[in-house]
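An example makes the point: we print one protein in full, the chain in one-letter code, the fold tokenised, without further comment:
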Amino acid sequence: MSDLNFRPYQRPPMTRGLDPQRVNWLWRLVCEVSGLDAGDVVAALHAMQVPVDHQRVASWLANDFEDNYFPLTVAEMERNLRSVLALRKMQANASDEAPNAEQADAGHHYTPELASFEAVEPVEPVEGAATA
């Protein structure tokens, strides 16, 4: 058994300063760990009525030496994360409710009565007409 549960916790040393106006490096790390890509983030932000395009979201994932880099603030990062969480929750709720909705609607689908069509006498083919 490991003794790590009984040893005191120690914080890691601060190896970089944190500029709250430029947290792209942290955003990239969060996206990598969680498997998020720019398309996921765009969908989540759009679901929360945040006007953003794919180019802007991709610029948050770029390194500061890249041409398409645009700084991401802590406030934007928080909004992005909360939007992703909210969208995932909505999707989970929708998938939980979907089987129940299908069962509830199962008895309410329109099915035409074919008996009225069976009473019609067959039509004789017309000479020279194409047949299927």
